[in-house]
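To the wet lab folks,

You asked to see what we're planning to order before we commit. Fair enough. Below is the target structure as tokens, and below that is the sequence we designed to fit it. If anything looks off to you, flag it before the synthesis order goes out.
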């Protein structure tokens, strides 16, 4: 059995936040592959399904981001799931919007959800890093991640979530490179911001 974890914060106020893209991706996978209904368990919501013969437990922790590891560790212990059979979907400030990377192990990169999982489970699990871009200054990070996706983000966000759900079986099969390649082919780049000026004294 694999444990699929989407990270986010519970409640309608957070539903469209950039920090909740892990929840969004988990929801898409559950819908696309006809998992059972979400139900409350392990301090979160869980849904069960099968992809290409592999049983999968999807989990969305309801502990708020900073305590995500409590729910993940409880589910993993109960089902005797080893860390390397855990796949965590999460937002990543260090990747451009719509870019995706997959890796096993490594540091938390300042992500509080990953820090909590590391503390409870160790770090030998798989991470699917879903790029949300960086606001440009560290003082802007909190309002950025806890802010809603903009309307302009739909050009890449919808295709990203669709592609993650469609090609998730490749991850289940252990084909991480193929998964990342497919997403790179199918997710369009964000539109560059419109210039606020046609030029200044320096002609730029």
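Sequence we intend to order:
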């Amino acid at each position: 059995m694999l444990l699929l974890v989407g990270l986010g914060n519970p409640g309608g106020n957070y539903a469209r936040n950039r920090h909740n893209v892990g929840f969004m991706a988990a929801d898409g996978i559950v819908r696309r592959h006809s998992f059972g209904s979400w139900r409350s368990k392990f301090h979160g919501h869980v849904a069960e399904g099968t992809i290409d013969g592999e049983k999968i437990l999807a989990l969305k922790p309801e502990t708020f981001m900073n305590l995500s590891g409590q729910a993940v560790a409880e589910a993993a212990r109960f089902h005797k799931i080893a860390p390397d059979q855990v796949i965590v979907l999460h937002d990543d400030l260090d990747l451009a919007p719509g870019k995706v990377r997959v890796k096993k192990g490594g540091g938390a990169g300042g992500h509080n959800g990953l820090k909590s999982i590391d503390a409870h489970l160790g770090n030998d699990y798989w991470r699917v890093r879903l790029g949300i871009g960086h606001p440009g200054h560290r003082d802007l990070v909190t309002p950025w991640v806890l802010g809603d996706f903009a309307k302009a983000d739909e050009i890449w966000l919808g295709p990203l979530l669709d592609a993650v759900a469609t090609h998730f079986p490749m991850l289940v099969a252990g084909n991480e490179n193929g998964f990342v390649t497919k997403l790179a082919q199918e997710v369009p780049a964000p539109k560059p911001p419109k210039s606020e000026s046609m030029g200044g004294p320096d002609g730029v």
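Structural context that might help your review: The first strand starts at residue 2 and ends at 6. The first helix runs from residue 21 to 32.

Thanks,
Computational group
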